[in-house]
Specification:
By secondary structure, the protein is mainly alpha-helical. The protein has helices at 2-7, 30-40, 61-75, 80-85, 87-108, 114-125, 127-133, 139-158, 162-176, 185-199, 204-233, 256-261, 288-298, 311-336, 345-368, 382-401, 406-434. It is globular. It starts with a helix and ends with a helix.
Length: 436
């Protein structure tokens, strides 16, 4: 599925399809210029204020690895243009590693049978992760490291060994060397650390040694780039460039009420992200919740302008996405109000705290940087993983809670199976048609 997507998603020296902030190779800005800087300059860091060139404020791991991949290919006589195109095989690899990590998380939570298959199917066929597989920016790799940190935290909670805490440290550290937003999982992991210290105090010395080792590995690995820029160029550690208020995408003139609650404008009349392009379109999308629903399955793109006949399938996919989001929210609430067979209390707090923290920072970012592009679902893809996990848990738990009410429970379970199956099939149809 992902291979088909990248083969149909062009990336060349002059053409870029469904990319974010990549710009054109051979230029002076964007992720492409960042990658080419390492390729052309012996893998040395840029020696200038990173805020002066678009996207150079990001930490360099993804761009360094991309340049290394291109250098390897061109060393074996692949043309430079083909090496650029082949960057998508690197992101494809990250995307496949993501699926393996997701499966391991479900195993760690002891989900089995359909309770495991349903969430894994949603994650596997979810359009966000299909789009990630061909997107040559740092979203894919940073999400992979976040998921690895998520897995490692669960592993350490069950088995608090030096090996597992080092896996957390490396995952968070390398993730922050890819994108700063990976740091959002750190406070949730800290809750697990604190729980062990409080409720297993007799092993305090052992935990203290592990925490020191964690800090020794994670902090330098994760913060070196930000501290370097702060000391050398006086760049704030949490720096994110702000688009101009004269930008077409600026939506700061809408009130908070309008952005959160106003749906009088019929936001789903257009199933894709509303934009004004070349004078066509009514407005730029400004409701973050509507944007989540749309961009989670279509990104920021309008497939109706790309492929004839795809819109009916897209409409079905959007409807199924709304239903699946509702199911995931209901499943999350259900799993939180009962004693779970799959999660202990601290695991539940860890997962829910990170879920809420992600949404809070997403909304904060959407209002602090009031532009349509700031609301893309690609900033909170882990909510899909967490929501899917709760669907799988609720699917299994419900049959134990109501063992004598098969006439009620079975239709619910069959409905979840049917909706998940239709969502996955429709996602495949949309992205096969898109890339055919």
């Amino acid at each position: 599925m992902r291979l088909n997507y990248i083969l149909g998603t062009y990336l060349t020296n002059t053409r870029r399809v469904r990319q974010h902030d990549l710009y054109q190779f051979g230029g002076e800005k964007g992720h492409s210029a960042y990658i080419e800087h390492f390729y052309n300059n012996g893998f040395t860091l840029p020696d200038f204020d990173p805020t002066t060139k678009a996207q150079f404020y990001h930490p360099p791991l993804h761009h360094f690895l991309s340049a290394l991949w291109m250098r390897l290919l061109t060393t074996f006589n692949m043309s430079y243009d083909r090496a650029i195109s082949s960057l998508q095989f690197l992101t494809l690899f990250y995307s496949m590693c993501f699926l393996v990590a997701a499966e391991r998380i479900l195993d760690k939570l002891k989900l089995r049978g359909l309770g495991k298959i349903i969430p894994l199917a949603i994650i596997t066929f979810h359009p966000t992760f299909i789009l990630f597989s061909g997107s040559v920016n740092n979203d894919n790799l940073s999400t992979l490291f976040t998921l690895l940190a998520f897995y490692a935290a669960l592993a350490w909670e069950k088995e608090p060994t030096m090996k597992n805490i080092m896996l957390i440290a490396v995952s968070v550290g390398l993730g922050m060397s890819t994108k700063l937003s990976v740091a959002l999982i750190a406070p949730a992991i800290a809750i697990i650390f604190l729980d062990k210290v409080i409720y297993d105090g007799k092993n305090f010395v052992s935990y203290f040694k592990q925490f020191v080792a964690f800090a020794f590995v994670c902090l330098p690995l994760g913060l070196w780039f930000y501290i370097r820029n702060s000391v050398k160029f006086e760049v704030p550690i949490t720096y994110v460039p702000r688009l101009s208020e004269t930008s077409d995408q600026y939506i700061g003139y809408h009130t908070v009420y309008e952005r959160l609650f106003d749906i009088s404008y019929h936001p789903f009349k257009n199933i894709f992200m509303n934009r004004i392009v070349n004078g066509e379109g009514e407005y730029f999308e400004y409701n973050p919740f509507v944007t989540i629903i749309k961009s989670s399955v279509f990104g920021e793109y309008d497939y109706g302008d790309t492929v004839a006949g795809i819109v009916p399938f897209c409409r079905i996919l959007l409807i199924l996405n709304i239903i699946l989001i509702a199911i995931s929210l209901a499943a999350t609430v259900y799993c939180l109000v009962r004693k779970s067979s799959f999660m202990n209390t601290i695991e539940r707090i860890f997962i829910v705290f990170y879920y809420i923290l992600s949404l809070v920072f997403y909304l904060r970012f959407a209002f602090q940087y009031p532009h349509t592009c700031s609301m893309d679902y690609r900033y909170i893809p882990m909510t899909c993983v967490i929501g899917s996990i709760f669907i799988g848990m609720a699917f299994e738990e419900i049959k134990f809670d109501f063992p004598k009410k098969d006439n009620i429970i079975n239709p619910i379970r069959y409905s979840v199976i049917g909706i998940t199956s239709l969502f996955c099939i429709t996602s495949v149809l949309v992205y096969v048609i898109l890339c055919s």
